[in-house]
Amino acid sequence: MAKSIHDDDREQVRRLHAEGMTRNQIARTTGRAAATVSKIAGELGLTFAGGARVAAATEARQADAAARREQLADEALDGALGQVARTADAESARDARDHATAARALTEVHARVAELARHNGTGSKGAAMLDRLADALYGPAGGDTEGE
Looking at residue 76, what is its pLDDT? Predict the structure, then answer.
């Protein structure tokens, strides 16, 4: 047989709700079923809007991650362009190769981060930088490479 709801139960739910507890936390604290807590809360005009808070926090976290990915992509391309520029000033063939290897690794980081951004529906503004990097590494598209 179901336990009847008393004014003490209502007051306890009102107090715990005011403290910011969720429905499930109140149920555990009071030893009542979550459905009973919902019923009492409904009678008192109380709502549990934790879902909206969680959704807002999740959205903010996703936006922050997207911004950080974009920054990472841009910094990877900036680093790659810097490495490409250093190949021309390298003191040895080994140094030039090391700079080219670093440029390639940074370009791959950018490509992976950009793919993740495309998959998640956020884009990077680094596409033009990627084109500049490719031009620096391989020459302009359709360009003449005969003198190499």
Answer: 92
Separation between Cα atoms, residue 4 and residue 113, nearest integer Å: 57
The average pLDDT across 37-64 equals 79
Terminal-residue alpha carbon distance, the chain = 90
* Span 38-53, average pLDDT: 81
CA dihedral 57, 63, 69, 73 (to 10 degrees): -170
DSSP code, position 78: H
Whole-angstrom distance, CA of residue 70 vs CA of residue 126 = 8
**What's the pLDDT at 147?**
44
Structure tokens at 123: 């884009």
The distance of Cα 101 from the centroid of its chain, to the nearest Å, equals: 28
Question: b or e along 47-62 (b: 16 or more beta carbons within 10 Å of the residue's beta carbon)?
Answer: ebeeeeeeeeeeeeee
Query: Can you tell me the distance from the alpha carbon of 56 to that of 46, in angstroms, rounded to the nearest whole number?
Result: 20
Look up tokens 């336990």; give the residue: 3
Cut 0.70: pTM above it: no
Q: Tell me the pLDDT tens digit for each residue of 107-126.
A: 999 888 888 777 766 554 45
